[in-house]
Write a structure and sequence with these properties.
Blueprint lengths: L2 E2 H4 L5 E5 L5 E2 L1 E3 L9 E4 L12 H6 L4 E4 L11 E5 L2 H12 L8 E6 L4 H14 L4 E4 L3 E4 L2 E4 L7 H13 L4 E5 L2 H5 L8 E6 L7 H4 L2 H13 L6 E5 L5 H4 L6 E6 L6 E9 L2 E6 L2 E5 L4 H16 L4 H8 L10 E4 L5 E5 L4 H14 L6 E5 L10 H10 L3 E4 L9 H9 L10 E3 L3 H11 L5 E5 L6 E4 L2 E4 L2 H8 L4
Parallel strand pairs: 4-5, 5-6, 6-7, 8-12, 8-13, 9-12, 13-14, 14-15, 15-16, 20-24, 21-22, 21-24, 22-23
Antiparallel strand pairs: 1-3, 2-7, 9-10, 10-11, 16-17, 17-18, 19-20, 25-26
Helix pairs in contact: 3-5, 4-10, 10-11, 12-13, 13-14, 15-16
Length: 486
């Protein structure tokens, strides 16, 4: 496939153009290592590297168009130079044009917030699939195009990959696309060029402050997604979160509200809770679900209200909601033959951990011990580490601090950061075991019949990343093996 630059050029953001606008283009890349003859090379200023340093290399490899924020000192003949205000934003629009604007042919719904994104996007995908529609999914765990699955590497892929995936969805006959929208993706303009039919706000709690530096910056990143929605889109916001109404201030889209606690456009109340599910009153109708915890009631409410906003009928949605099952690694329970209950959950923020422990407290009779195994990821927001330990301690009888994905950090140093959140009077309830497998086995050994063991932080992940190497590691596998259920 070949197009001309003039066919792809975005309407806005170009400061100047030097060269022939009729230059032929064979593809687009932002990675100089991937350049082939006739490519557009987009020089982005990234977190770790600046693409402007590789413009000459890209030209040597045959790039015919250079998109950049700063023109090089020396211009090469027969190369078209496009100086732009924001290279990352331009990349998104170029990618959309290259793939013939796929989001114009889909109803794309973006889900943003700290917790719940994966569950809401994935469950919405499954709901529409069960209703008989072809749909696509872009999530933390996987991307799915009309039933064909691919393991994900980022919550929200780069702009080129997003547009390629959406083009594949259109080609496969999909009508809907449900995608997670991370704060990083908003700031880095990875969603530029996408026309969203709707957006969903879940909640906003402590996370990613290693990247955004301050909570107001993190909030602004999330809000920018809603600011960008068009007037014919919808915005669903969770007003149980104190930032729910802030998210949609000045939003041009049609705003609707969700709540499990107060008056809203869509409401949900937990009627009964058990380890195998809960009975909900959803918009005035009772429905049994296979989910546990108020946070999951909130997630299901978002899924339900999204379906309504996309034109589906309540009487068709509710039976499907009763069929849905939790996303892998989200409140995944395993019962031993002698009556111990282990729960594996992806909770890796203070609020997510608090929610899971609250869900356990809603179900337990009061006599069982709750033993929590938890760590914190390396090379990530350090300020949440003591908070993670505090939340674990508040909802547990025993806490075992351990490794998560230490990445390039010393796991013992990470645990020390977590220990800073524990006061001396509670120290006797806390163990620190660096080896995660040993920590899980210790928790299972300490548990008696009826006790509940929460293993938090990794959920669906089947690896542990240590010094840049991913080693096979699966919390659920270890528990199943220990319980003799393998």
């Amino acid at each position: 496939m070949e197009k001309k630059w003039i066919e792809l050029a975005p309407a806005e953001g170009i400061l100047q153009s030097i060269g022939n606008p009729g230059t032929g283009v064979s593809g687009i890349t932002f990675d100089s290592r991937m350049v082939v003859a006739g490519n557009i090379f987009v020089a982005q200023k990234g977190v770790h590297t600046d693409g402007h340093q590789f413009i000459q290399l890209a030209i040597e490899k045959g790039a015919s168009v250079i998109v950049c924020e700063e023109l090089p000192m020396t211009l090469v003949e027969n190369v078209l130079y496009i100086q732009v205000k924001d290279a990352s934003e331009t990349l998104g629009h170029l990618a959309a044009a290259w793939f013939d604007f796929p989001s114009e042919h889909l109803k794309v719904v973006g889900v943003t917030g700290t917790n719940g994104k994966t569950s809401i996007a994935t469950l919405s995908y499954h709901l529409f699939t069960i209703l008989g529609y072809k749909a696509g999914l872009i999530s933390t765990i996987s991307t799915i195009v009309a039933g064909s699955m691919e393991t994900a590497t980022h919550t929200t892929p780069d702009a080129l990959k997003i547009q390629r995936l959406m083009a594949e969805m259109v080609e496969a006959g999909c009508e809907y696309c449900f995608m997670e929208v991370s704060s990083h993706a908003v700031v880095q303009k990875r969603i530029a060029g996408i026309r969203f039919a709707g957006g969903i706000f879940t909640n906003l709690t402590h996370d990613h402050l290693d990247y955004h530096k301050t909570f107001p910056e993190y909030l602004a990143a999330k809000k920018a997604f809603f600011d960008g929605l068009s007037s014919d889109a919808f915005a669903i916001t969770n007003i149980d979160d104190k930032n729910g109404r802030i998210m949609t201030q000045n939003c041009r889209a049609r705003i609707v509200t969700n709540s499990t606690r107060t008056m809203a456009d869509f409401r949900c109340k937990v009627m009964e809770s058990h380890f195998d599910g809960m009975l909900l009153n959803l918009d005035g109708k009772e429905v049994w679900t296979r989910f546990v915890g108020k946070f999951n009631a909130s997630n299901l409410l978002a899924v339900y209200s999204t379906a309504i906003m996309l034109g589906q009928k309540m009487e068709e949605i509710l039976p499907v909601i009763s069929q849905l099952t939790p996303v892998a690694g989200r409140f995944d329970s395993i019962r031993s033959t002698d009556g111990k209950m282990a729960i594996v959950d992806y909770a890796h923020t203070p609020d997510a951990l608090k929610n899971v422990l609250m869900a356990i407290s809603e179900i337990r009779s009061g006599n069982e011990k709750v033993i929590t195994v938890v760590g914190a990821g390396g090379d990530r927001d350090k300020t949440k580490r003591p908070e993670m330990a505090r939340e674990a301690l508040q909802g547990s009888d025993i806490v075992i601090l351990t490794s998560d994905n230490p990445r390039t950090e010393d796991p013992e140093a990470i645990i020390k950061d977590m220990e800073a959140g524990i006061d001396k009077s509670s120290a006797n309830k806390v163990l620190s075991i660096t080896n995660r497998k040993e920590a899980i086995r210790t928790a299972l050994n300490l548990a008696q019949t009826g006790d509940i063991i929460l293993v938090a932080g990794k959920g669906h992940e089947n690896y542990q990343e240590i010094n840049g190497i991913k080693h096979h590691f699966d919390d659920k596998e270890i528990i199943t093996e220990f319980f003799g259920l393998a």
